[in-house]
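Insulin-degrading enzyme-like 1 peroxisomal
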Amino acid sequence: MLFSTPKVHIIIDFHCPLSSHSPEAVVATELFVDLLVDYLNAYAYDAQIAGLFYSIYVTSAGFQVSLGGYNDKMRVLLNAILVQIVKFEVKPNRFSALKETSVKDYQNFNFRQPYSQASYYVSLILGDKKWPVAEKLEALSKLESDYFAKFVPHLLSKTFLECYVQGNIEPSEAKSIVEEIENTIFTTPNSLFKSMSPSEYLIKRVIMLENDLKCYYQTEGLNQKNENSSVIQYIQVHQDDAILNIKLELFSLIAKQPAFNQLRTVEQLGYITSLSLRSDYGVLALQVVIQSTVKDPSYLDVRVDEFFKMFESKIYELSDKDFKDLLDQKDGKLWVKK
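Tokens:
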């Protein structure tokens, strides 16, 4: 279907199972993407002038290329990016510079706010094949260009592509773009990429928490000079489902303001206070985050429990009219993950 604005958006997901099987693989994949972005900087200005944009970044399954803008020159930019990826070579001077930057970024993790570190620990506990920052930093520090040059063909030797094309474009042209992507990636002479069979594609998984069981993970903040402490109460709800998603989103929208008002304004537990949804590989959860200088995490956790008890009673007391009013207030704000 054509729209009035002559623009198109293309997303290419490169699923590479070998990108996360070890700390060394994770940091090498990150550096591979950093180098790609660095090499493509030569196209950034011209693309911007032509009304185009692109981005390349690491994902949980590999990396993603995203392009958008006016469709008349989109295929020119797409081809330039694909050729750079297919003919990737390691430039030792750029490797050393970007590795140094990456090492500093990992070292600076210790200085992040406690609530950010707490969120990292939640991901580390829940996720399949998640690696501690300390192990990734150690692996990165030992990474040499010779090993990296051997790793990249290994990384790309198992690749599964997913392509999305949306905007002012006919279905036939969208199919043509996908065919061009596949041909460039897999059939270009001396291409590093090898296609992956469907049976080799692994779905990311999350630890399933038992019902009626509350688990705790406590650890000291990595920056001893930071006086703040933080708690994240994570409530796992369900796997991705359209109807359940709507119900959970509605609960989150209704509870968000009362949670902030009670925990932040009334009890003044911490400047950073929020209730929000969280999705880890399609497993949805509700989480409450509080960062505080006045109370310890154990006390904060108790107050979150008390808030939910109080809020539950208020939910049961809602009249049909009050509930309809809430729906009217939230109309148009519901998020459905397709």
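The longest strand covers residues 229-239.
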